[in-house]
Design a protein that fits this description.
It contains four helices and no strands. It is mainly α. The chain has one domain: Up-down Bundle (3 helical TM bundles of succinate and fumarate reductases), CATH 1.20.1300.10.
């Protein structure tokens, strides 16, 4: 095979998706989602500073089905990015590079994301 016919870097079309690659892609996506989702927080804070009418409008949007869906997605992204960031801190310290450990820590990230998200939403509704 000539050198010109080979891909320049790994492509999704060439390699079978693995847990580690999907978690890496998800980490990048959730980082962007957190940045964009923070705009919703800024909107809510600006509305609170704008007075009762602005705040009521913001609360109406955030309390709607679509607003709650956005908040739920933001919460998932927050806890996923947090858990995977902690995983990366261990990697930065030189721990957890063995393949079985990488698989277990990846599954632990997914489990922590699910548990923390559900617990925080339950706690939010119990308080409210």
């Amino acid at each position: 095979m000539a050198a010109g016919n080979r891909p320049l870097s790994p492509h999704l079309q060439v390699y079978r998706p693995q847990l580690t690659s999907m978690l890496s892609i998800a980490h990048r996506i959730t980082g962007v989602a957190l940045g964009v989702g923070t705009l919703l927080l800024v909107y809510w804070l600006a509305a609170a500073a704008g007075g009762p009418e602005s705040y009521a409008a913001a609360q109406g949007f955030i309390g709607s089905f679509f607003g709650q869906l956005l908040l739920f997605g933001w919460t998932v992204a927050l806890f996923y990015h947090l858990a995977n960031g902690i995983r990366h801190l261990f990697w930065d310290a030189g721990y957890g590079f063995e393949l079985p450990t990488v698989q277990r820590s990846g599954l632990a990230v997914l489990a922590a994301t699910a548990v923390l998200t559900v617990v925080s939403w339950i706690a939010a509704y119990v308080v409210l």
